[in-house]
Amino acid sequence: MGLLDPDRGCRSAHTFRHGHNGEVLGANAAAKRIDLQNLDFAVISHRHGDHMGGLAHLLTVNPTLTVWAPDEPFGVFGSQLDATFPRADNSLAPHERYFDGNRDGIWKTGSAWPRADFHLVSAITEIAPGITLIALVSDRPGTVELRELSLALDTPDGIVLVVGCSHPGIANIVEAARPINSEILCVVGGLHLLVAGDLEIASTVALLHDTYHVKYIAPGHCTGEPTLIALKKVFGARCLYARVGSTLSLGGSPTTETQPRSTAK
Predict the structure, then answer these.
(1) Do 3 and 16 contact (CB within 8 A), yes or no?
(2) Using an 8 Å Cβ cutoff, are 49 and 21 in contact?
(3) If you placed Cys at 146, which of 138, 140, 217, 226 could pair as Cys (CB 3.0 to 4.6 Å)?
(4) Residues 53-83 pLDDT 10s
(5) Residue 95 has pLDDT above 90, yes or no
(6) Amino acid 170: pLDDT
């Protein structure tokens, strides 16, 4: 989950890899002096628990917050279907048919957070000036049909692309963002290469660096250790260290600031 700080505008973004624990999200936000009651909106990248587990806590402290999420039929964020969706058979008695045979209107599906103000996204959507959600669907084994949102911030220096896990493929996400601005300043987040082989890693890194000319990269989460090594070799100082609690300062030369981890005693 990425949280934009309205006091700093689009010149900085705070990244929380809070896993499934909402209390950790709250503690991280407090450590960074971020007031969760003072957010413009939140974006959930996809339905996996380690990317939406903090939502319950967030909605407890900010229950009216607008939450952008992927539109998935029968998904945990809620959805709706045209009432003509299932095939009909008029030979059945009314009490044996769906909704007594009423095929008018919309059938709404439930949400795990029924009081939340979800705005569901199924296509590329600008949600604020210079802030666009990239909606793609994964075709990769293990996550086929998984819908995922990525956040494109259009800055004077190029796109800052905040990704969740890149299940649809990081190259596909970058390609979808280029019509907004062909200059890709920075890619931030997970690249979904935890178990990838060396050839796939090398190909992906080359695409980002040589084909799409990504200037900076701040990998995290599901990028994978061998991938991090490959990125550091190719991007050098333009591979930014970003972990829990990191603050990414945007601009022509992005940097990251990270508070030291506390040492347990």
Answers:
(1) yes
(2) no
(3) 138
(4) 889 899 999 999 999 999 988 889 998 888 8
(5) yes
(6) 97
List Cβ<8 Å contacts ≥24 apart for 150-154.
Answer: 150/45, 150/177, 150/189, 151/2, 151/43, 152/177, 152/180, 153/10, 153/13, 153/250, 154/130, 154/180, 154/181
CA distances from 161 to 13, 41, 116 (A): 11, 17, 26
pLDDT band at 230 (very low <50, low <70, confident <90, very high): very high
Q: State phi, psi for 133 to the nearest 5 degrees.
A: -95, 130
Sign of CA dihedral 120, 152, 134, 258: negative
Q: Which of 3, 5, 11, 6 is nearest to 160 (CA)?
A: 11
Strands (E), 158-258: 158-163, 184-189, 216-219, 247-249, 255-257
Percentage, residues of the chain above pLDDT 90: 61
Question: pTM (2 decimals)?
Answer: 0.85
Q: Residue 260: what pLDDT?
A: 52
Between CA 264 and CA 134 the distance in angstroms is 40
Tokens of 34: 């971020």
